[in-house]
């Protein structure tokens, strides 16, 4: 330790706390130079007059009560050190400091301040200025201390000089481990910029990277990139049926599959504008990747879809999840990161509308469709409450008699400004916006009420049953669906055998295991179940046997070439025979001509529906049709 250590302690003439202007100035304290002259001991330089002067200035305080001080000293989580001024001896150190410096109290006392590099702190100019100005606080100063095991410790040191009854003037210093604090700061920064569940980048980082990439693209048109927006069709069902722990497990597995299936060529080596994978929330993921055109972006999307296609093993169960990917290519005219995310989101919904498990590249017309979808979503709540939503009924005909044996209830929306909005457009909007359960409840209740009215008016001429299509959202809420149906039957009085629910083959094939509880609950309630659009999902005969349906509706695609291709009639005959052997009724959908109706009758098909047999119509026109059936 150098001879100048503390030599200027307390120097200066600035009045301190407690100094009265009319009091005589305290005796001058020897200068740093005088104290450091040959033959002088710097540790003994502080005189009694110096202590008096410092006390007058309020710099020296009486110590706290020893017991309180010792307890504070021992329990403090911050390192604390006591150094005697007159000889530089380390008098004491608390447990936090000993742990930080990897030594015992005795080892530290033997080592002294200079060994652990504390002396450099005491010699720091800011420390010396504090002593000379009598400010009462020494530091804070950052220093690198040397633990006795050789480890270097970055520390923030703050001290104060006080008068101790036994040792005279002593320095009390706190030594804060900056390494731990900086590690915590890094953890906080990381938490603010990453998704805690998957470790991927979060929305904040994604937006920053997108904006940086757009700036780079404007300067250099070769720095092209694409945004891929990835969403999963059945993630909510996983949470609802298997629990949030399984849902979290699935999200972590999705993130890992995305990481594993990306190549170095997908990324920009510039870290400021480079590619990344981010999770926006829920089951939404976004990939920013370097591409040289649309073909490369679609190739990347196909690779990711293949990686995400295998089933997920969640809590001992196998879960299939279909991913939909929307792609948008950035160009020099792209305005902001928000525009990119909006357009990629629009393209992703187009992929969902196309059936999922595919990717769609954004184009201009999609934006207009996206704007229309947003407007319809906003209008749908009002439409449900203002009578804009109504039901049309399409008859199911007995081909042998022409009688209406059943009706299928179909939701219709007449928008006051846009006119008729097709169910293929507003049903997905209802599913995505959380309105499907309310809309589904209304359809079931209104169809049941109308059926009971026909039955009251027409008696035995009334149709045998009314059929309602179920959305995947309704099936996912198995217990709620069962309770809602029971409430409607109790409210309207409709017999269970007169109410039938239809589920499309594609949905049933993908999710029959997950929805089995909903289907079994409905079957137990006594209502009918129909497999709709058979022939679009490649359901095997074995699978069909396992499904709890008592009726199958053959898709209209079977009839498209019935009149021109002799092979089709053989396929239809075989399909009808299969249904009969399984004990299932069959309804042929999409009958568009008298010739098709006649051929179906000749092949042994008893029931059919289609525009030739009757278009969807309001309740009153259908009433007249039921009362006066016409031949097929």
Report a brief summary of the structure.
This protein is of the alpha/beta class and 632 residues long.
What does it look like?
This protein is α/β, with parallel strands linked by helices and 632 residues long. Helices cover 45% and strands 21% of the residues. It has 23 helices and 21 strands. The strands form four sheets. The chain has an eight-stranded mixed beta barrel, surrounded by five helices. Strands 2-1-5-4-3 form a five-stranded antiparallel beta sheet. A hairpin with a 2-residue loop joins β7 and β8 (284-290). α16 packs parallel to α18. It is elongated and about 120 Å long. Mean pLDDT is 81; it is low at 1-63.
Characterize the overall form: elongated
Poorly predicted runs are 1-63
Over all CA atoms, what is the radius of gyration? 41 Å
The percent range for strand residues is 15-25%
Strand line-up across the major sheet? 13-14-16-17-18-19-20-21
* Count of beta strands: 21
User: Averaging pLDDT over every residue, what do you get?
Assistant: 81
Query: Helicity, in percent?
Result: 40-55%
Could you tell me how far the N terminus lies from the C terminus, measured between alpha carbons in angstroms?
A: 112 Å
Largest sheet properties? 8 strands, mixed, barrel
- DSSP summary: helix tally: 23
The helix/strand class is alpha/beta
Set out the fold topology:
Layout: H1 32-35, H2 48-56, H3 66-75, E1 79-84, E2 90-93, H4 95-101, H5 105-115, H6 118-122, H7 125-133, E3 138-146, E4 152-164, E5 168-177, H8 178-193, H9 203-219, E6 225-232, H10 235-242, H11 244-260, E7 276-281, E8 284-290, H12 294-308, E9 312-314, E10 317-319, E11 323-329, H13 337-353, E12 358-361, H14 364-385, E13 389-398, E14 404-415, E15 419-421, H15 423-433, H16 436-458, E16 465-469, H17 472-476, H18 478-492, E17 499-504, H19 505-524, E18 528-534, H20 541-546, E19 551-554, H21 566-581, E20 585-589, H22 594-603, E21 607-609, H23 619-627
Parallel strand pairs: 11-12, 14-16, 16-17, 17-18, 18-19, 19-20, 20-21
Antiparallel strand pairs: 1-2, 1-5, 3-4, 4-5, 6-8, 6-11, 7-8, 9-10, 13-14, 13-21, 14-15
Helix pairs in contact: 10-11, 13-14, 14-15, 16-18, 18-19
């Amino acid at each position: 330790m150098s001879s100048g250590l503390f030599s200027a302690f307390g120097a200066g003439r600035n009045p301190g706390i407690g100094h009265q202007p009319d009091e005589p100035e305290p005796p001058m304290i020897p200068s740093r130079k005088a104290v450091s002259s040959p033959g002088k001991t710097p540790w003994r330089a502080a005189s009694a007059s110096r202590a008096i002067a410092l006390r007058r200035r309020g710099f020296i305080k009486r110590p706290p009560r020893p017991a309180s001080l010792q307890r504070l000293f021992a329990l403090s989580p911050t390192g604390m050190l006591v150094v005697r001024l007159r000889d530089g001896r380390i008098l004491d150190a608390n447990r936090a400091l000993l742990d930080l410096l990897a030594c015992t109290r005795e080892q530290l006392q033997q080592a002294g301040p200079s060994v652990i590099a504390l002396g450099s702190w005491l010699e720091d100019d800011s420390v010396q200025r504090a002593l000379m100005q009598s400010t009462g606080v020494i530091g804070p100063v950052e220093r690198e201390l040397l633990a006795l095991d050789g480890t270097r410790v970055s520390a923030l040191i703050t001290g104060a000089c006080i008068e101790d009854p036994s040792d005279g003037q002593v320095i009390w210093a706190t030594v804060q481990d900056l390494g731990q604090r900086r590690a915590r700061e890094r953890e906080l920064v990381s938490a603010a910029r990453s998704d805690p569940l998957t470790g991927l980048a979060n929305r904040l980082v994604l937006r920053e990277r997108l904006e940086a990439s757009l700036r780079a693209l404007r300067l250099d048109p070769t720095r092209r990139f694409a945004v891929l927006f990835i969403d999963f069709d059945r993630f909510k069902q996983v949470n609802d049926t298997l629990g949030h722990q399984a849902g979290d497990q699935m999200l972590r597995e999705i993130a890992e599959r995305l990481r594993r299936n990306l190549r170095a060529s997908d990324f920009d080596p510039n870290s400021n504008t480079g590619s990344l994978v981010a999770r926006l929330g829920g089951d939404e993921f976004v990939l920013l990747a370097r591409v040289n055109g649309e073909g490369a972006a679609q190739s990347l999307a196909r690779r990711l879809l293949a990686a995400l296609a295998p089933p997920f093993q969640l809590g001992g169960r196998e879960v299939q999840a279909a991913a939909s990917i929307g792609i948008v290519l950035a160009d020099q005219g792209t305005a902001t990161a928000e525009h990119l995310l909006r357009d990629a989101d629009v393209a992703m919904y187009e992929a969902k509308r196309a059936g999922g498990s595919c990717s769609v590249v954004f184009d201009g017309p999609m934006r207009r469709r996206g704007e229309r979808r947003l407007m319809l979503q906003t209008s749908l709540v009002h439409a449900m409450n203002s009578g804009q939503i109504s039901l049309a009924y399409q008859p199911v005909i007995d081909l042998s008699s022409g009688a209406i044996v059943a009706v299928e209830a179909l939701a219709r929306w007449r928008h006051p400004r846009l006119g008729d909005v097709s169910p293929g457009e507003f049903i997905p909007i209802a599913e995505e916006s959380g309105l499907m359960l309310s809309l589904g409840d209304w359809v079931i209740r209104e169809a049941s009420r109308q059926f009971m009215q026909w039955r009251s008016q027409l008696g035995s001429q009334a149709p045998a049953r009314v059929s309602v299509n179920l959305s995947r959202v309704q099936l996912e809420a198995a217990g709620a669906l069962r309770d809602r149906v029971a409430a409607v039957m109790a409210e309207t009085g409709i017999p269970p055998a007169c109410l039938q629910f239809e589920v499309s083959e594609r949905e049933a094939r993908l999710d029959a295991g997950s929805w089995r509880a909903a289907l079994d609950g409905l079957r137990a309630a006594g209502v009918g179940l129909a497999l709709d659009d058979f022939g679009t999902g490649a359901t095997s005969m074995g699978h069909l046997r396992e499904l709890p349906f008592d009726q199958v509706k053959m898709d209209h695609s079977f009839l498209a070439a019935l009149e021109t291709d002799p092979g089709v009639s053989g396929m239809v005959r075989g399909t009808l025979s299969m249904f009969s052997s399984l004990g299932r009724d069959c309804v042929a959908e999409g009958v568009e001509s008298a010739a098709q109706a006649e051929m179906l009758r000749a092949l042994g098909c008893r029931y059919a529906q289609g525009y030739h047999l009757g278009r969807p119509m309001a309740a009153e026109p259908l009433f007249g049709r039921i009362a006066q059936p016409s031949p097929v």
